[in-house]
């Protein structure tokens, strides 16, 4: 009996040594993990998520809310910005294409607004699909400038690219939630 207790005690000591000497690999920082999925927009992703004090509580629900808020704020400013750009353009062909971009921005805003309802009701798959629809709608604007006269104003491209990137952060986060 004493012999079996000694062996059990030795096993326990050996296991304790193993678990403290060789730590198990742990998951990295959640924000780093999310932003690693966006190599082209990683700096924007890191800045967006880390700038918000709520990001100290690192879980997908909080990151989804942070990324949604950033995407919504940007998307809300897009239609008036594009309208002001349309007014400043003189070329009638470009002006007409930009008017289509105004509609794209408004439709994307509608889709991202609906995503919030689904995020709040924890229907993450549908929130993701609404965000994807918003991004697809925004990309239509750039496609209208592929045929001549292909004079897409740089400010327009930058604004739409940024909005698409912010919505993509939300999409990456919500994809982990369903």
TrEMBL record:
SUPFAM superfamilies: Plant invertase/pectin methylesterase inhibitor (SSF101148). Pfam families: PMEI (PF04043). Residues 1-28 form the signal peptide. Gene3D superfamilies: Invertase/pectin methylesterase inhibitor family protein (1.20.140.40). InterPro entries: Invertase/methylesterase_inhib, PCW_Enzyme_Inhibitor, Pectinesterase_inhib_dom. SMART domains: PMEI (SM00856). Belongs to the PMEI family. PANTHER family: PECTINESTERASE INHIBITOR-LIKE, PLANT INVERTASE_PECTIN METHYLESTERASE INHIBITOR SUPERFAMILY PROTEIN. This is Pectinesterase inhibitor domain-containing protein. It comes from Lactuca virosa.
């Amino acid at each position: 009996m004493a012999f079996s207790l000694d062996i059990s005690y030795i096993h326990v000591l050996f296991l304790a040594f193993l678990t403290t000497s060789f730590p198990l690999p742990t998951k990295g920082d959640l924000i780093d993990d999310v932003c690693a999925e966006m190599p082209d927009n990683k700096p924007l992703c890191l800045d967006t998520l880390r700038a918000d004090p709520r990001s100290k509580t690192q879980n997908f629900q909080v990151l989804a809310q942070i990324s949604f808020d950033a995407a919504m704020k940007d998307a809300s400013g897009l239609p008036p910005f594009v309208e002001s750009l349309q007014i400043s353009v003189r070329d009638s062909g470009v002006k007409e294409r930009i008017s289509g971009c105004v509609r794209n921005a408004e439709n994307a805003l509608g889709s991202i607004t609906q995503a919030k309802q689904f995020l709040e009701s924890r229907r993450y798959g549908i929130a993701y699909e609404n965000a994807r629809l918003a991004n697809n709608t925004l990309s239509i604007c750039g496609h209208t400038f592929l045929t001549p006269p292909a004079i897409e104003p740089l400010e327009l491209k930058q604004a739409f690219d940024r909005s698409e990137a912010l919505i993509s952060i939300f999409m990456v986060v919500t994809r982990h939630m369903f």
